[in-house]
Amino acid sequence: MSSPLSKPQIIAHIQKSLNYTVFDSKWIPCSAKFVCLGNFARGTGVLQIYEVQHGEAQLIKEVEKAKPIKCGTFGASSLQQRHIATGDFDGNLHIWNLEAPDVPVYTTKAHKEIVNSIDGVGGLGIGDGAPEIVTGSRDGTVKVWDPRQKDLPVANMEPVEGETKRDCWTVAFGNAFNDQDRCVCAGYDNGDIKLFDLRNMSLRWETNIKNGVCCVEFDRKDINMNKLVATSLEGKFHVFDTRTQHPTKGFASVSEKAHKATIWQVRHLPQNRDIFMTAGGAGNLHLWKYEYPAQRSKKDSDGADVGVAGSVNLLQNATLSTQPIASLDWSPDKQGLCVCSGFDQTVRVLIVTKLNVA
């Protein structure tokens, strides 16, 4: 039997109380700094930059913005620039140079309502093709933006005339393994998950997981689609094997009831795509490892390939707060380092140990 100390441990290294509601926190690539995004009680937005020094998080910059900021991504920026793209409560998409964050370097009115979720690809050396940003909004639309092109999205996925607009809670890029292929996955408040193929501008696959979809993420953006995790309101998450798509059955999946409350986020470890962390509404984190089946696909009675789902093992869990942990981001550079923030107005830097033996 392995001793408990041989398992990965989740250690709260730094805790910092904030004087505002924090919605998102992100590591700045190639640095010991992170960004916090949120809103002050007076209704304005805030962007803060912290640097980890001598076991403390030092505030090095704070900028107040007109509208509360909901989400951010570095995914469409170069490693040299490291500009952050943000979505706000007024439907705006802004890109900020963190060296001079007073005026955005790019701005567009992306949506009629709040931007709930944002993701980027084609920057940071991750994913082939153009640098692009995807936004998902309460107005029911999912739009893809190229920062080199002003005001018009390069793709707009919206409900057809007469169809009910569903609140889009989460978006993620995937399948960007060459210059032509790219997918966007979107999750909605009614449990719908839709996979859009940007190369063919078509809906490639859809399913419904019976509960509002809080977060979707591919295990890697820059490979031929491998796995997709979707988390939901009732404490359940689903892992879809996206390598094999059956013409009628779609993707094989395994689901796990993990948290007692909403699972707000899932984030895959940058250094190992089979390890991921889920962040829950009861202030807890769960660290998981996906185990592949002996065979990932088999033939059905018609001779078509059908996927075989694997299993998930819980490696570790930790309770950090009594309030939901709404954002989580692994450091792309240092394995096991992550930042998370919650509705207790606290940002935490965590160290997760022994990930290489998990």
Provide structural commentary:
The structure is a single chain. With 358 residues, the chain is mainly β. The strands form eight sheets. Strands 1-30-29-28 form a four-stranded antiparallel beta sheet, with no helix packed on it. Strands 2-3-4-5 form a four-stranded antiparallel beta sheet, with no helix packed on it. Strands 6-7-8-9 form a four-stranded antiparallel beta sheet, with no helix packed on it. It has a single domain, classed as Methylamine Dehydrogenase, Chain H (7 Propeller). It is built from no helices and 30 strands. The protein is globular, with a radius of gyration of 19 Å. The mean pLDDT is 92.
Summarize this, please?
Its main location: other. This protein has no helices and 30 strands. With 358 residues, the protein is mainly beta.
State the low-pLDDT regions, or none. none
CATH fold node name: Methylamine Dehydrogenase, Chain H
Which sheet architecture does the biggest sheet show?
A: 4 strands, antiparallel
Corresponding CATH architecture: 7 Propeller
Strand arrangement within the widest β-sheet reads: 1-30-29-28
CATH homologous superfamily classification:
YVTN repeat-like/Quinoprotein amine dehydrogenase
Global morphology? globular
Following the backbone from N to C, one meets helices and strands in this order, namely EEEEEEEEEEEEEEEEEEEEEEEEEEEEEE
Total domains: 1
Count of helix runs: 0
InterPro entries: WD40/YVTN_repeat-like_dom_sf (IPR015943), WD40_repeat_dom_sf (IPR036322), WD40_rpt (IPR001680)
Organism: Poecilia latipinna (sailfin molly)
WD repeats: 133-146
Keywords: Apoptosis, Cytoplasm, Repeat, WD repeat
